[in-house]
Specification:
The complex is a heterodimer of chains A (402) and B (206). Chain A has 402 residues and is mainly alpha-helical. Chain A is built from 17 helices and 6 strands. The relative contact order of chain A is 0.09. Chain B has one domain. The longest helix of chain B is centred in the N-terminal third of the chain and has 25 residues. The chains are: A mainly alpha (402), B alpha+beta (206).
């Protein structure tokens, strides 16, 4: 079907919807490698594999059309996948699901195998109590911790089938449960497993009633989200968060680096605007600011030769907060936004440094920044200020690769 | 006497050229401000949350302020005046224009203005842009223009805090244009070109 579609002059409607709304993350070919994919955690789905987490079908089976439509409509909570209901029409969604299915041979060779319907066990203190026993019996704590937040877990970090990092779900934050937070949603995850992740189907290890009890127990673990708290609870929650951040600076630093936008510039790109594999934070985006010069984003990994390995912590902090490099070069306040970063709490800046020290070193030699020569600068300034020119800030994919 | 006048004229001319050169060299947007000054401007720019009456809302907005300030939303969503960014119109947008292979965009007005700002959007609509880059008309913005893929990594609670804070900004009536589709790249090999010397917003809506 995919091959056939390629010979049509006019792309199918499903493909058009896909290109306009899905390709930014899932990539033109559907391999989960769109321009935005590298920054997202979790990564967007690779549609070529035919593996889907959120299903109502047996472990190892492809999802039903209804499953896919549901995921597109509702979105996947706790990820970048939004609900497309009210944005796309039902017809658009049906067509795009048809197109997505055409990206994987699995859907041609296999039929979805829906699970047998099971009678729900309504939530009650008894059911929750039995669910807690099932939690112990099925050794959920090994990955999710005795408190559902990873306490005492053997490990909470994994690799998925695409060798991307994965963290076990925090069971106290139901608003991040990908497929929804009702007892039925949670039951379905136990019953079907989550394909591509270490979360198995418990079909053979537990019976339906046990899985329903377990679902009721997991739902009972929910904590209050900030927006439902009282003023005092909010303050206590933030104080606890700050204390946790101080205790685990690397985790806090990872959060900051991945949300402040460091990755957007300090990475090397291919010609399709995608971060080259392994080049996240290894520097490379080349930024030309007329009439000032060329400012390639540096390698932030702890490589001794080409990265921050030979910088002291204070030098890294000075670069973040004052825009002054190891050799004393001063940067423009844009695009390296040291003005804003300097307003961070000192412990947050420490955390960023701690995280940058903890990532694997990547050898990627980025050219040194190059100020424009004096006549070029003066002429550019004259054009800009006297002749009213508007010189662009130009982004080139990769300074190292050109 | 003639000779004296001639030399005076030459000296004046040379001084004038040098002065003009210095003026060109030093005038913004060459940023000769000390980093401390620049950092302090960023520290003082966001409107404080102290006068929010509801203590819960205040605590959440304070967290939002910290995120908005440290993330540097103002880097793109400023409004340019005649002397560079006008920080009194905090986050009223229009200061930056982005040209990509897909469209031309201008940074938007994030203040809670009823006709030109975010007061037109629900919390869910604002959060959807921050989480997924999907605007209320359904178009998806590129992550290299609006870095929503990194804001997508905010916890839902932090994202909520950002929205709560944005709701407490001073409303500024400043219309910013909608994106214009089409390849706007004019520089070979570039994957994006941005412009930032003017106010790219439109005249205030009546």
């Amino acid at each position: 079907m995919a091959t056939a579609a390629r010979f049509h002059a006019q792309p199918s409607h499903g493909k058009q919807v896909y290109d306009a709304h899905c390709a930014e993350c899932h990539g033109e070919s559907g391999a989960g490698d769109g321009p935005s994919a590298a920054f997202l955690n979790p990564r967007p789905r690779d549609f070529t594999s035919g593996k889907y987490k959120i299903r109502t079908t047996e472990s190892g089976s492809v999802p039903t059309d209804a499953d896919l439509i549901q995921s597109v409509k509702q979105g996947l909570y706790g990820t970048a996948m939004p609900g497309w209901d009210h944005v796309l029409t039902d017809g658009d969604i049906a067509d795009v699901v048809g197109f997505i299915k055409s990206l994987s041979p699995q859907f041609q060779s296999a039929q979805p195998m829906p699970i047998a319907a099971a009678t729900p066990v309504p939530s009650s203190p008894d059911s929750v109590g039995r669910g807690q026993k099932a939690y112990e019996k099925l050794q959920c704590a090994k990955c999710h911790g005795t408190d559902g937040r990873g306490a005492g877990a053997v490990t909470t970090t994994f690799m998925d089938d695409w060798r991307q990092p994965l963290r076990s779900a925090d069971l106290t934050e139901p608003w991040t449960f990908r497929g929804g937070s009702t007892s039925r949603d949670v039951y379905l995850r136990f019953r079907t497993g989550m394909a591509g992740t270490p979360m198995p189907s418990f079909k053979d290890a537990a019976n339906d009633n046990e899985m329903w009890d377990l679902a009721n127990y997991v739902v009972s673990l929910a904590r209050k989200p900030v927006w439902s708290m009282t003023a005092d609870e909010v303050k206590a929650f933030y104080a606890q968060q700050d204390a946790d951040a101080k205790k685990n600076p690397v985790t806090r630093g990872e959060y900051l680096v991945n949300t402040l936008g460091c990755t957007v510039c300090h990475s090397a790109y291919d010609d399709h605007k995608r971060v080259m594999p392994g080049k996240l934070l290894a520097g490379g985006l080349d930024i030309r600011i007329d009439p000032y010069g060329d400012f390639p984003a540096g390698n932030l990994t702890p490589d001794k030769e080409t990265g921050l390995g030979n910088w002291t912590d204070d030098e890294v902090k000075r670069a973040i907060t004052k825009g002054i490099l190891k050799d004393g070069t001063r940067l423009l306040p844009f695009p390296m936004d040291y003005g804003s970063f300097s307003t961070m709490k000192p412990e947050d800046i420490d955390a960023i440094v701690a995280y940058l020290r903890s990532i694997p070193p990547v050898v990627n030699r980025v050219p040194h920044l190059k100020w424009a020569s004096f006549p070029v600068y003066m002429w550019g300034k004259f054009k800009m200020l006297i002749l009213g020119g508007d010189p662009p800030i130009v982004f080139f994919p990769s300074a190292g690769g050109r | 006497m003639k000779r004296f006048l001639k030399w005076t004229a030459i000296v004046v001319l040379v001084l004038a050229v040098i002065a003009f050169g210095c003026f060109l060299y030093l005038i913004p947007p060459f940023f000769v401000v000390a980093p401390e000054t620049f950092g302090k401007q960023m520290m003082d720019a966001p409107p404080p949350v102290a006068d929010i009456a509801d203590p819960k809302e205040r605590a959440i907005a304070e967290r939002g302020l910290y995120i908005v300030r440290t993330t540097g939303c103002i880097g793109c969503h400023a409004t340019n005046g005649s002397q560079g960014p006008d920080l009194t119109k905090y986050l009223a947008g229009g200061a930056l224009k982005f040209q990509t292979a897909h469209a031309t965009y201008v940074s938007r007005n994030l203040t809670p203005d009823k006709t030109t700002g975010l007061a037109r959007r629900t919390d869910d609509e604002v959060k959807r842009v921050l989480r997924s880059g999907v605007f209320s008309d359904g178009h998806v913005v590129e992550g290299s223009v609006m870095p929503w893929p990194v804001f997508s990594n905010w916890t839902e609670e932090d994202r909520q805090a950002v929205v709560v804070y944005l709701r407490h900004l001073k409303p500024v009536n400043h219309q910013t244009p909608e994106p214009v589709p089409g390849n706007a790249i004019t520089i070979p090999g570039a994957f994006e070109q941005d412009y930032g010397n003017k106010d790219y917003g439109l005249a205030p809506a009546k």
